[in-house]
Automatic annotation (TrEMBL):
Keywords, ordered alphabetically: Hydrolase
GO MF annotation terms: mandelamide amidase activity
SUPFAM superfamilies for this protein: Amidase signature (AS) enzymes
InterPro entries: Amidase, Amidase_CS, Amidase_dom, AS_sf
Domain of life: Bacteria
Protein name listed in UniProt: Mandelamide hydrolase
Gene coding for it: mdlY_1
Amino acid sequence: MPAQNTALHFQDAHELARAIRQRELSSRQITVHFLDRIERAAALAAYSEVTAARALAQADAVDRLLDAGILLGPLHGVPVAVKDSVQWEGVTASLGSGALQGRTSGQTAAALRKLAAQGMVVLGKTRMTEFAFGLSGQNPTQGTARNPWDAHAARAPGGSSSGSGVAVAAGLAPLALGGDTGGSVRAPAALNGLVGYKPSTGVISLAGCLPLSDTLDVLGSISRNVADARLLTQLLAGPDIDDAATLAFPANAVAALRQPARRGAGPLAVLVPEAWPAPLADAGRQVWELAQENLAQAGFTPTPWCPPAALSFARMADDNSLVLAYEAYRHYGALAEDPAQPLWEVVRARIAAGGRIAQADYEAALLRRAADMAAFAQAMQGVDALLMPACDQAAQTLDAGDARHAGLGKLLRPANFLGAAAISLPAGFDAEGMPIGVQLLAPAGGDAALLDCASALEPVLAPAPRRPDLSAWGL
């Protein structure tokens, strides 16, 4: 690659798309650049499978179309990484499990078909927590993606979309598609200094994706900024006959999402500390307080928000875990109960626990979910977004019992239980230089207003973005 292109890997997706449209660079040049970095950064273990031949063929095809005057979409020619759970016909999809190692997909997920139809180039499949059941991102069975912010100690990359977060943070993809069932897009984003957007349930079709929880699963993006997250979601949003949730999602909410971003933030609230579902460690508290100071200096005055008595964020986090485990057992219980299957024992125990949940308790949780969604929407009237912590601490070193990041789940899971739109934003660093994020929530269907608020807060929360030192990884 020419010398001026050495920083391509840290350019925003919309900037890469502009360079392609204006013929400053071809999609093939950009794709080769990322494939070269991926090959040199094998130690980061961001990808479970690199689809280099397919990616180059896609890049050549979209370059030929552009030569013919055909532009497929606003991200025409831009590379993207995709979580392993998003199926692609002829490519392996093991859900991060040794029990499914080598299994090849016989279909292509609706979301991946849309990416290709928009002219995007898929670099490959990214690593994930086994069966997407865990937020630290740890996976001893297939290998854990390495958090690039610490070259000396193996820290949590965030999960379950661990490889997607590492790929974007390390400049191995300009943006990535992940899944979020209990925080699995926002966790890797928060722990890698990125933007992680979980749309409302029903915005993006899950058809062709391998499930963890049919009720809670959502596809979302990991990107460098809110603008890229919004753009990728605009390309993927819309009804799909093969996903009933997309058919039930209000058409006017999708239309609002596709409108240009509004300037400035709408009414903003902040969750009072006594309502947090988990306490913050000292570093998390310091970053949270710094975020409040930065917002105040920029003229933002969020209204303190205390939820109705029945709307406990801690209880919703627990209910989300109950629903997730119950439904995960229906999909993978037979594998978990078979001692011959090579599952990580931590994940095996999590899945097996779902088999001990009574159906009546599961159904009661679903009834509470419907009531909570209605109560949250009612209580948030007149407010576009709710600000709250995304993580209690920065990424810690990995622990065998995978218990060190429990607070991460408690803070992230309520948004999934509410079917809410949620986005994590970089907000600062701990004393060791590890990223910490905050998040915004909006009631289901409030995605457009949420993203408007996120766009306004983004430069205030992280006025001087940092990137990890990648020299130790040969990059």
